[in-house]
């Protein structure tokens, strides 16, 4: 497909649909994958239902995850509907394209004692006052304390942090803003970073970004993921989780502590309560595991 068409579709996703940069990048990647399957000479007008089904079948045959297949089908449906309105297609070939249902698996989460050990590991690295270690401590502490997404954390500016009230102003999916509190340990990590860490890395082009990379630019989420994985590797018996695993863990531990499901939904920025309810299955599964191990008549 012609790059100009993809560029125009990208603008539509951003300006009219309000899709995040992450979603737009994924959708455009899906369309390029379809273009590679169809060949270089393919135009939008060549799209038809059998072709789209064949492409998804080929992707499934390659072992592409069901969650990815589901997103790719959604990307195509969004694109063809736009192409009809744009006059690039007479009819929408994806109307009857079935979206593969993504299986909802229980997310890997830390036990509460493992979470304590992970925070201790991050704190230990920061004791020497190294700017990068102070930043890494804040990444781990804040992700677990708030349950926010790694993209949301890396997108924070200094002014998005209200230290007096200990809350973050977070811009989530669909440009929806929410307020998320954080506790004492994260507050101490934040103050250490702002006073002793960030000034050492900041450069003239750093701008208002809260978290910085080694060269003083806004921290990339991929770097934050590496930080979390490295921290988890220091915790005996802990699953190899990334930032999303810390988000899962925060939600699970909130519910285990008696938090209301709708409060957790608001904190996580879920548009649907059904998404948050996945964590209730996690806590039930953990209760079942403890019961099976400990009860004499389990």
What is the fold's blueprint, element by element?
Blueprint: H1 3-15, H2 21-38, H3 49-61, H4 66-86, H5 112-126, H6 131-146, H7 150-154, E1 161-162, E2 167-171, E3 177-181, H8 184-201, H9 221-232, H10 243-256, H11 261-268, H12 273-294
Helix pairs in contact: 1-2, 2-4, 3-4, 5-6, 6-8, 6-10, 10-12, 11-12
Sequence stretches where pLDDT stays below 50 over 5 or more residues: none
Gross morphology: globular
Note the gap between the termini: 59 Å
Average pLDDT, all residues: 89
- Main pleated sheet: 3 strands, antiparallel
Structural class: mainly alpha
Strand line-up in the sheet with most strands: 1-2-3
Question: Mind explaining what this structure looks like?
Answer:
The chain has 298 residues and is mainly alpha-helical. The chain has two domains: 3-86, Orthogonal Bundle (DNA polymerase, domain 1); 112-294, Intergrase catalytic core (hpI Integrase, Chain A). The chain has helices at 3-15, 21-38, 49-61, 66-86, 112-126, 131-146, 150-154, 184-201, 221-232, 243-256, 261-268, 273-294, and strands at 161-162, 167-171, 177-181. It has a three-stranded antiparallel sheet with strand order 1-2-3. The chain is globular and about 60 Å long.
